[in-house]
């Protein structure tokens, strides 16, 4: 099964804690080589789903495959995992911490140390190679932990809320690192409650809310569920052109906002011109992932997503 086209597949996974449903029939497929975003507010069931994929816990019902294997732990050497709870041994030098994490995934320590030196150098942390973790800033320590998840050259990288706790500069560096991994052919799954990260990085997403998948598939497909939005400002106040606007068009100041009618932009433009609207400004915007998220998971889940980083 090693040649499965999916790096990870979840089928109807269910998990209860003390009788309470945490994950309620979750299914999604992660194509090999993709960057896959797992989006949802806090408590939605992201961590529990990722732990089940990894084989840290078993689903009560349903199944999963990781790199084609039914028993995820049998492919642990090909997987890298950044848990939500971060932590390294404070007294360990940065290089040793990375080599140690690699060793846990089967990489000989000597090779791990050599790779760690290069990885730290490339991450701009060359001077910290032999410094103990406790002397690093929180952001640097998190970078070291990330390097420890890739040092053994995994085929699949699973990162649980990797952007949390990083400042904007380090978030940008992490995005670059994720892209670099994907370019090498590594599949990357990351969870987030910040839509913008997924929007910039992913072609594929799963949206989870209250333990259920609200959407799984291509970002483009999520967006395509929404019509483009028209923003229109006219010189004329009244006229035959107004008949071309949908009944639910919103007027804010001198501007109208409405969904592009199903007939598309041409009939609308023609009606505006023939009807003497006097177009002052006009834009037609494709909805972003955020709008799609609101439409799919609801306002309440979207509002929770915006909190914190
Ligand atoms: N070991 C556990 N024992 C009891 N309840 C748990 C356990 N792990 C998770 N839960 C509960 O399951 C639900 C889903 O939690 P989970 O951590 O998977 O969500 P999440 O989307 O990753 O959110 P967060 O980012 O806040 O961790 C929550 O209600 C949580 O309290």
TrEMBL record:
Top-rank taxon: Bacteria
Q: Which residues form the ABC transporter domain?
A: 8-235
Q: Which UniProt keywords apply?
A: ATP-binding, Nucleotide-binding, Transport
InterPro entries assigned to the protein according to its UniProt record, in alphabetical order: AAA+_ATPase, ABC_transporter-like_ATP-bd
For this protein, the record's SMART domains field holds: AAA
User: Sorted alphabetically, which Pfam families does this protein's record hold?
Assistant: ABC_tran
Example of a GO MF term: ATP binding
Family listed: Belongs to the ABC transporter superfamily.
Protein name according to UniProt:
ATP-binding cassette domain-containing protein
